[in-house]
């Protein structure tokens, strides 16, 4: 079949299918987000137009934003489908790098197709070509190497035959899953080749479930059988394996208390009797209490990020760690018993090895009593006050959400409010992008999630800083007719970083607008309602008393395919605190005694951290 490189690539994308959790088939690549420029409009752009009925193309307005939308799509489908983003060479391509970092840190699939400079070099230097002095083969796309699980530059059409199976492998592999970058030189996109028909035969990609080594399972079972205070930690790998129900049934059989990481949040409904609450800095005091007392931790599908482990101070130095993970890279961390395999299959294989073992009833009961204390604390934070707080906003959104509604955030103070305060009534209905904590993901990712989800309403919560960082995809979603609700909480600056800054003894500086330099006596402020309306959104201005009604109206608008923005002023310094420590770089010398006091506290906490690390 004689096709250009671009035509062959598009036909291959269309031929790839995926098996969803319910056994049905769907396109592996459900659509392409595109901004065309001279580096991709004629090659890949023409090929996509020829197949416009087979694979939809969605127009973005910022390259980073549309690639983040692709990431949000993948998360909302639990890695079963993959978003694609294409750009021209130069600044358009480099704008994708941040989104690649988000996908890489969060182990999410993303296919990036940036244009590249001419392989012939005949017209060099072309528009947007950087011309590195030291390397004639380099282009801006080499920046993707650090944030790609797989990178290739297609310099001949026939190279697709070898590279496309590797593309599919990485995007669908439970251990290696992450972003793939195929750099596509402008001239090669348009070159033709006689491709074998077999390259375009439909392929169904099923969930891979690698089984763990029997000896590792036996060692894990031995450690658990000797535990008096074991704790089950559920991470994102449980979600992507579709193992949520299996994990809960496993815990129920043995009376094992459950906590969740950021990526694993909402795998367990809030009122489950074994749910101790989320774990870590943005988690709950109840989950952290059990973690501190646990003698064995069974961590399933988590990369054990510092926010989960409180910089490795949340667990007792004497704890035994058992890690079940599809990626050996994560399973071997901190000297734990490494069980390398799929979460669903691994738990199913581990269960019969535990046989008649059960957790002491007094420890099982700790989950209920500890979480009751945390719930009482959150109830107080949700109580009405003179100024609306993040906790109150989250509580009102929570009260108005059903089991199929989907809630999102990414950066600032809202992750702590959602992770710690949300009360889930449905499984896997939260996306908190806190692997990369990318400002701007809140809006772009919500666009992707709204495209992916057929049931319920997507609500994204974000601060004024994230809104100003990347808001262009509000118009992209509004234009495309993918409705969601964006709740914009205006607290007049980067309030959570101001909290970190002043909480460690430093002076408030360059975070809250009151501490930022301006030559004006009265600097301007953003009218978020007017701005969102100008981008084609339905706007609902709210305060503490009107928020429930305005949010209900916004959900109705989102259900009709509209992007609905709720604007609200929030208190700048009221937070939900889980009581865990986080290591940050506090200076050893300072003219401020408050900084020196904070450094002394850090050194004390570091001693606890080192005791844990040396014990493992």
TrEMBL record:
SUPFAM superfamilies: DHS-like NAD/FAD-binding domain (SSF52467), Thiamin diphosphate-binding fold (THDP-binding) (SSF52518). Gene3D superfamilies: 3.40.50.970, TPP-binding domain. Coiled coil: none annotated. One of its GO terms (biological process) is L-valine biosynthetic process. Residues 40-128 form the Thiamine pyrophosphate enzyme N-terminal TPP-binding domain. Residues 219-349 form the Thiamine pyrophosphate enzyme central domain. One of its GO terms (molecular function) is thiamine pyrophosphate binding. Residues 426-567 form the Thiamine pyrophosphate enzyme TPP-binding domain. CDD domains: TPP_PYR_POX_like (cd07035). InterPro entries: DHS-like_NAD/FAD-binding_dom, Myo_inos_IolD, THDP-binding, Thiamin_PyroP_enz_cen_dom, Thiamin_PyroP_enz_TPP-bd_dom, TPP_enz, TPP_enzyme_TPP-bd. Pfam families: TPP_enzyme_C (PF02775), TPP_enzyme_M (PF00205), TPP_enzyme_N (PF02776). One of its GO terms (cellular component) is acetolactate synthase complex. Keywords: Hydrolase, Thiamine pyrophosphate. It comes from the Bacteria. NCBIfam families: myo_inos_iolD. Belongs to the TPP enzyme family. This is 3D-(3,5/4)-trihydroxycyclohexane-1,2-dione acylhydrolase (Decyclizing). It comes from Kutzneria buriramensis.
């Amino acid at each position: 079949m004689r096709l250009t490189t671009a035509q062959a690539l598009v036909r291959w994308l269309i031929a790839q299918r995926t098996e969803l959790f319910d056994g049905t088939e769907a396109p592996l690549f459900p659509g392409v987000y595109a901004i065309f420029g001279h580096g991709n409009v004629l090659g890949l752009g023409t090929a996509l137009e020829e197949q416009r009925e087979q694979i939809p193309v969605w127009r973005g307005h910022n390259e980073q934003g549309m690639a983040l939308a692709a990431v949000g799509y993948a998360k909302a489908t639990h890695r079963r489908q993959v978003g694609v983003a294409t750009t021209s060479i130069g600044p358009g391509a480099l704008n994708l790098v941040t989104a690649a970092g988000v996908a890489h840190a969060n182990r999410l699939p993303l296919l990036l197709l940036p244009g590249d400079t001419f392989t012939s070099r005949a017209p060099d230097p072309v528009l947007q070509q950087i011309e590195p002095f030291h390397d004639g083969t380099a282009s801006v796309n080499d920046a993707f190497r650090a944030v790609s699980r797989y990178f290739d530059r297609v310099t001949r059409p026939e190279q697709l035959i070898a590279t496309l199976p590797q593309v599919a492998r990485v995007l669908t592999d439970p251990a290696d899953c992450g972003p793939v970058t195929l750099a596509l030189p402008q001239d090669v996109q348009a070159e033709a080749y006689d491709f074998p028909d077999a390259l375009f035969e439909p392929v169904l990609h099923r969930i891979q479930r690698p089984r763990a080594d029997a000896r590792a399972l036996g060692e894990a079972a031995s450690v658990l059988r000797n535990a008096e205070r074991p704790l089950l930690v559920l991470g994102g790998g449980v979600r992507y394996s579709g193992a949520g129900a299996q994990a809960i049934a496993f815990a129920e059989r043995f009376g094992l208390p459950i906590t969740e990481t950021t990526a694993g949040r909402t795998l367990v409904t809030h009122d489950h009797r074994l749910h101790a609450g989320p774990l870590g800095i943005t988690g709950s005091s109840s989950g952290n209490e059990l973690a501190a007392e646990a003698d064995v931790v069974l961590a399933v599908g988590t990369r054990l990020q510092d926010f989960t482990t409180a910089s490795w101070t949340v667990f007792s130095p004497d704890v035994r760690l058992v890690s079940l993970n599809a990626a050996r890279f994560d399973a071997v961390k901190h000297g734990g018993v490494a069980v390398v395999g799929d979460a669903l299959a691994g738990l199913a294989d581990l269960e019969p090895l535990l046989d008649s073992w059960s957790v002491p009833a007094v420890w099982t009961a700790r989950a209920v009593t500890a979480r009751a204390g945390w719930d009482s604390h959150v109830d107080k934070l949700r109580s009405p006050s003179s100024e609306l707080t993040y906790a109150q906003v989250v509580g009102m959104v929570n009260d108005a959400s059903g089991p199929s509604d989907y809630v999102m955030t990414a950066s600032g103070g809202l992750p702590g409010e959602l992770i710690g305060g949300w009360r889930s009534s449905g499984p896997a209905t939260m996306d908190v992008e806190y692997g990369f904590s990318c400002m701007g993901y809140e809006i772009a990712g919500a666009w992707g999630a709204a495209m992916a989800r057929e049931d319920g309403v997507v609500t994204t919560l974000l601060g004024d800083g994230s809104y100003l960082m990347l808001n262009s995809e509000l118009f992209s979603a509004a234009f495309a007719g993918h409705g969601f609700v964006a709740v914009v909480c205006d607290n007049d600056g980067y309030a959570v970083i101001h909290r970190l800054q002043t909480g460690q003894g430093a002076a408030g500086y360059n975070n809250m607008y009151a501490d930022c330099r301006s030559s004006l006596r009265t600097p301007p402020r953003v009218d978020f309602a007017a701005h969102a309306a100008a981008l084609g959104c339905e706007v609902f201005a709210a305060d503490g008393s009107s928020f429930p009604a305005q949010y209900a109206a916004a959900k109705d608008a989102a259900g009709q395919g509209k992007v609905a923005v709720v604007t609200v002023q929030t208190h700048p310094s009221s937070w939900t605190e889980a009581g865990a420590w986080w290591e940050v770089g506090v200076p050893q010398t300072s003219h401020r005694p408050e900084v020196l006091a904070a450094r002394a506290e850090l050194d004390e906490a570091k001693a606890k951290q080192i005791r844990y690390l040396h014990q493992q």
